[in-house]
Amino acid sequence: MISNIKVLTTKGAARRWRPPLVVGYVKGSEAARRVVTLDIRVAQNKPGGCASIHLIEKKGTKTMDYKNIISGIDTIVVGYAVNGYKDGVGDLAVAKAASKSTQFENDNGVVKLGGVELQVQPRGARGYEYVAVNGDMVVKVANKVTGGEAFPEVMVELRSNYLWREGWQNALDRVTAWVNQWAMVKSDKVSRVDLCADFACGLPVLDNDFEGVVTRAMSRKAFAEKCPISKYKQGLKMSGYSFGKGEMMCRIYNKTLEIEKTGKQWFYDLWAKHGYQEGDITRVEFQFRRDALRYHQINTIQDLKLQVADLWHYATNKWLMLKEIRDKEKTHKLRWLTTEFWFMVQKVRSFFGELTGVLRLKQFKPKYKQLTAQCRGLIVSIAAMAGISLTNNPAMGIKQVQAYLHRVLMDDELFISVYNRMNKYALCEVAIPPND
User: Fold this and answer.
1) How far apart are CA 304 and CA 307, in angstroms?
2) Per DSSP, what are the bridge partners of residue 82?
3) Residue 375's domain spans which residues?
């Protein structure tokens, strides 16, 4: 794994990662120095804060080129708990009725909500009476208001083109301000986030049994699609891999092939602004759903803004890694070198912001019964040791422990320590048996 980058250019440009060029050498775990070029282009004042890293590694006569074109968030779903609706929401019922009667005419069923034009669908969704869409978002609105007791009354999915056009943080701020125009928002909660990075390189080649893959995901799949392999011939081409399913998953796939199916040609213009000319684009995309976000203590929009870098770091350094297959019998795969492609994927984290170091719930989630069992074991050990030193009498040992516990429990600083620990454990929903 590449580490310990020593920069050979000027101090200011190197330490602050300023463009246009930083040249240096790195030291790997094999004690072999590798010459690399890091070409960092930070898009100043551009939506999304897109940036790119370019790594060219030379091994003998073979050159491997990895260039990160853009990094950001491709999909966000946010729920808003509301205490009521303002003027304009009533028009959704009229538009829905019009949409049902003229399903093949787009002129009817259109409504303006908070100044934004939406097409109301003839059918709602589970728990939501109204579903309205436009090119930027999908909006679901519940008829019954409970202040978010059962689920958020308003659910908004921000689409890819809107997030890349406006920048995901600006897009979230605008949508939240827009929802506040026609609803009395009580709170917000992030339900889904898709982080991604696009690289100007071919799809990494993985062996059939995924031996070079280190992942916590149970599901691992490779998929191929029909595509032209010559001017007059169709064939199957490896198009990507997926790892995991449900609350968290990763997709590594050929984005240029996907665009041929989805028609999102505007991606080519976006890539061109960041140095793309031609060739395949490989996308690495991580999807986090509600439980996975909660696991990382991300609930609100503000939490996401602060901790998005932690999500990418966890996903690329803990949850999934691609390794160079080495001596299988002598070395565990965790000790294998990280592939140069995945090294670039990990470095993208710097463009999502600073790491906050927030602990995941599972890392410090306390177990009450386990702690009490440990406490009893410690008391027995201390009493036994004290009993041996005091005339070899168990009763005297227990009395010594009682005196010590009394002093600890009467200490004024104990209250402050307990209070601080309660604030930490409050995030973990600790359940204490009523009889304890």
Assistant:
1) 5
2) 185
3) 365-428
Helix (H) or strand (E) segment spanning residue 137: strand 137-141
Q: Are 299 and 284 in contact (CB under 8 A)?
A: no
Cis peptide before 20 (omega within 30 of 0): yes
Question: Rounded to whole angstroms, what are the CA distances from 313 to 181, 266, 334, 345, 346?
Answer: 36, 29, 17, 10, 7
Average pLDDT, the chain: 77
For 207, half-sphere exposure in the C-beta direction (CA atoms, 13 angstrom radius) is 10
Beta-bridge partner residues of 394: none
Residue of 150, 182, 141, 335 lying closest to 132 (CA atoms): 141
CB 73 within 8 A of CB 157: no
Of the ranges 176-180, 364-368, 414-418, the best mean pLDDT one: 176-180
Residue 382 DSSP SS3 = helix
Band (59; pLDDT cuts 50, 70, 90): very low
Q: Name which of 220, 216, 156 is nearest 189 in CA terms.
A: 156
C-beta atoms surrounding 191 within 10 Å? 18
pLDDT score, position 191: 96
Residue-wise pLDDT for 113-156, tens only, equals 999 999 999 999 999 999 999 999 999 999 999 998 889 999 99
CA distance 277 to 262: 21
CA 233/CA 224 separation, integer angstroms: 16
Highest averaged pLDDT of the listed ranges 38-42, 91-95, 236-240, 372-376:
91-95
Name the pLDDT band for 50 (thresholds 50, 70, 90): very low
**Within a domain: 380:** yes
Round the CA-based radius of gyration of the chain to a whole number and report it: 28
- Amino acid identity, position 226: K
Say what the pLDDT of residue 229 is. Answer: 44
Q: How many domains, in total, are found in the chain?
A: 1
Contact 137, 179 (CB under 8 A): no
Helix axes of 368-389 and 394-409: crossing angle, nearest 10 degrees: 130
Does any domain span residue 422?
yes
Distance (Å, whole) CA 306 – CA 332: 35
Question: Position of tokens 């929009």?
Answer: 301
Residue 355 lies in a domain: no
User: How far is residue 360's CA from residue 366's CA, in Å, rounded to a whole number?
Assistant: 12
Query: In this structure, is residue 418 part of a structural domain?
Result: yes
